[in-house]
Write a structure and sequence with these properties.
Radius of gyration: 15 Å
Number of strands: 4
Number of helices: 7
Shape: globular
Order of helices and strands: HHHEEEHHEHH
Helix content: 40-55%
Strand order of the largest sheet: 1-2-3-4
CATH class: Alpha Beta
Largest sheet: 4 strands, mixed
CATH architecture: 3-Layer(aba) Sandwich
Oligomer: single chain
CATH superfamily: VSR Endonuclease
CATH topology: Endonuclease, Chain A
Amino acid sequence: MDTAWQRANDKGDQRPTARTRQLRNNPTEPERRLWQALRSRQVLGVRFNRQFPVGPYITDFASRTHRLVIEIDGAPHAQSEDYDRQRTAFLESQGWRVVRFWNGDVMSNLDGVVLELARVLKELGVAGEL
């Protein structure tokens, strides 16, 4: 039988922890670049986790304290809008706020992406310096 977890990842035989470890060890270039900007609490002092599982999904980045998910979308996401809507609806139903950026934005305008994240975090009540 096809489970939500199996539909959510292309390696249905792997446990979530194995899949998250695999994704952390093989990030895309946009994920690698954004992680360099997020790691070590560089954005308003907020801690982010990479490839963090929430229910049947693995998020690109998540701040557990502020329940913020950051997704980086590439070309394949343009073809899976229904899946992304379903995924976002699930995450929001669990109390998470989801922010999406395109690969191209991360690669060509990382400062703008970080500023937008800081703006969203301030909306969530985070006080801090960039």
